[in-house]
Amino acid sequence: xxxxxxxxxxxxxxxxxxxxxxxxxxxxxxEGIDRHxxxxxxxxxxxxxxxxxxxxxxxxxxxxxxxxxxxxxPYGSAFRNMLVNPRxxxxxxxxxxxxxxxxxxxxxxxxxxxAEGHTLHGSSGPGFDRHQYYxxxxxxxxxxxxxxxxxLADINEGDGGLCLVPGSHKGNYPCPTTLRHATAHTEFIKQxxxxxxxxxxxxxxxxxxxxxxxxxxxxxxxxxxxSPGNLAYVGHNWSEEMLALMSSEQRKxxxxxxxxxxxxxxxxxx
Length: 270
Ligand SMILES: O=C(O)CCC(=O)C(=O)O
Fold this sequence. Notes:
Elements: H1 3-12, E1 14-17, H2 23-35, E2 41-42, E3 63-65, H3 75-80, H4 89-96, E4 101-102, E5 107-111, E6 118-121, E7 134-137, E8 140-143, E9 146-151, E10 161-164, H5 177-180, E11 190-191, E12 199-203, E13 208-211, E14 219-227, H6 240-243, H7 248-252
Antiparallel strand pairs: 1-12, 2-3, 3-5, 4-14, 5-14, 6-13, 7-8, 9-12, 9-14, 10-11, 10-13
C-alpha cells in the first residue's frame, strides 16, 4: 500500500482498488450470479433496510444472494480467488495485518432499478466497539472488521449503491438520526462511483449505507468482511465441505482467530 494511499485511508476510512478483477473474472462472476438468480432474496416487508426513511425508500428491497464460495465450477473458484486476490491482499495486510481472516460468509448484493437503500451505520463513537474500530498507534493504523467489496457492475454518479461519510471512522459523537436516514447533512454523504472490477475497501467504523438504486442496469457487489487474525465478529466455523474446496492459500484466510505467534499461516502475496 503506497504512502499516499495510507494517507487517504487514514483521513477517509476507505480506498478504491482499481481493476482488482479482470473483465473475464467479472464476466464469470456475473454468469455465476445469473445461474443462481432464483436464490436472490429481496428484502421486503420486515427485512426492509430503509428504516422508514423517506430518502432511502424504494419500490422493492435489496437483493441478497449467499453460498457463492461453494458454487459449482468455474463459478465457485472465481469467488474463492477473491480471498487471495494479489491486487487486494497487500491493502488488507496493511489495514488488518498479516494473518487477516474471513469473518462473515460472502454476501452478494444485487439491486434492481427502484431498490431501496439501507440506513447509514458504522461503529465510531460514542463508546469503543472492540470488533469494529479504527485506531492509529505506534506509527500505523489498526482496524477491526473491514469490508472488501468487489464491484461486478459499473456504478456511475447518481446510480446509488454504497455510500460513505468520509472521515467518520474517527467520529466520537453519536451520528444524527437524520444523517443515518439521509434526510439531512446529505452533502457529507459520498456515493462511491466505480467500474466493474474495482474493489472498495472500508473499515466498518466508517459510517456507511446504501442509496436507492436508480440505474437501468442491476447493481452487483461481492461483499467480503475480514477481521484481523486475533479477532472474530461472527462466531462460527467454516464447514469441512467448504474448506475442502479451498486451495492451501485460501485456507489460510479461513483460520479461526488466534495469536500470530502460534505459527499462524500468512499469505505469501506482498
Ligand atoms: O454496499 C452496500 O450497499 C452497504 C452494505 C452494508 O453496509 C451492509 O450490508 O451492512
